[in-house]
Amino acid sequence: MERMNLHLHTKYSDGIFSPAELIEAAIHYGINVVGFADHYLTTKTTAIESYAEKPYLEEITKLKKRYANVVRIYAGVEIDCSHPEFRPERYNYEFLNNLDFILLEYVNDGAHDGVSLQDTLPMLEKISVPVGLAHNDIGRNFEGIGHDVLAEFLSTHGIFIELDTSRRYRRFEMPYYRIAADFFRDYGQTVKLSIGSDVHAEIDEVANIGDAVNFIKKYNLANSLIF
Predict the structure, then answer these.
(1) What is the CATH number of the domain that holds 86?
(2) pLDDT score, position 110
(3) Nearest partner of 8 among 171, 165, 215, judged by Cα
(4) SS3 string of the chain?
(5) Taking the mean position of all CA atoms in its chain, how far away is CA 156?
(6) CA triplet 204, 209, 210: central angle to 5 degrees?
(7) Which parts of the chain sit beneath pLDDT 70?
(8) Number of other residues whose CB lies within 10 A of the CB of residue 193
(9) How many angstroms separate the CA atoms of 85 and 113, rounded?
(10) Structural domain of residue 219, as residue ranges?
C-alpha cells in the first residue's frame, strides 16, 4: 500500500521547514505520497493569506515536476472550522479548486467551538476537490449519530477522514481513529481515508505514519485511501 503523509505544514503557515525540505525528508523515510496542508485564512496562527496563494501553488507545482519520478506530491490547505474562524465568504474558491485536497479541522468539535458538518455543506458545494476531516475525534464529536448514518453522509458528500497519528490528537493514550475502530471496521470500505501526522517543527514526524498503516492493514482499508 502507499506510504502516505498528507498533513505537512511549511513556512507558508506555522511550519519551520520549506516544502523541499519536507519532500527530501519524506524520500529519506520512504514516504511516497506527500501532501502539504498549510493553514488558510485564520487568525489563530500564521496562515496563507490572499497574497501568498499564487506563490504557494507555484512552488508546489515546480516541486511536483522536479520530483515526478520519485514521490507523488499534492497541494492542499487546512481550514479552521471553529467559530468565528470559519468564514467561507472570504475564501478564494478559484484558489481552493486548483488545489488537490482540503482538510477541515474542528468540524462538529464542541471542545473547539466547531461548526456542524451540516454548516459546511454550502461551502462544499463550491469546491470540486476532495475535502476531508482533519484529526477529528469522530467517536466523541459524532456521538449519538449512528455509524451507518455518518458513513452514508460522508460518502454521499465525498468527505474523507484523516487518520492522524500526531501525539496531539489522542484520548486514553490512543489516536482518535483507534477509539473509533468499530466505525472503520464496519464502514471503512465506504468512506475514503487519508493518513497524516500534522508536521510542524519535528522533521522526523514526517515518518510517523506506522500506526495508521498498521490500522489500515488490520481492517483491509488500503483501497479506501484517497490517493
Answers:
(1) 3.20.20.140
(2) 96
(3) 165
(4) CCCEEEEECCCCCCCCCCHHHHHHHHHHCCCCEEEEEEEECCCCCCCECHHHHHHHHHHHHHHHHHCCCCCEEEEEEEEECECCCCCHHHCCHHHHCCCCEEEEECCCCHHHCECCCHHHHHHHCCCCCCEEEECCCHHHHCCCCCHHHHHHHHHHCCEEEEEECCCCCEECCEEHHHHCHHHHHHHCCCCCEEEECCECCCHHHHHCCHHHHHHHHHCCCHHHECC
(5) 19
(6) 110
(7) none
(8) 22
(9) 10
(10) 4-224
Tally of residues, the chain: 227
* 176 Cβ contact partners less than 8 Å away, ≥ 6 residues apart: 135, 136, 137, 138, 139, 164, 169, 170
Greatest C-alpha distance within the chain: 47
Question: What is the count of structural domains for the chain?
Answer: 1
Q: Which three cell numbers stand for residue 152?
A: 452514508
Give the pLDDT score at 1.
Answer: 84
Q: How far apart are CA 169 and CA 107, in angstroms?
A: 14
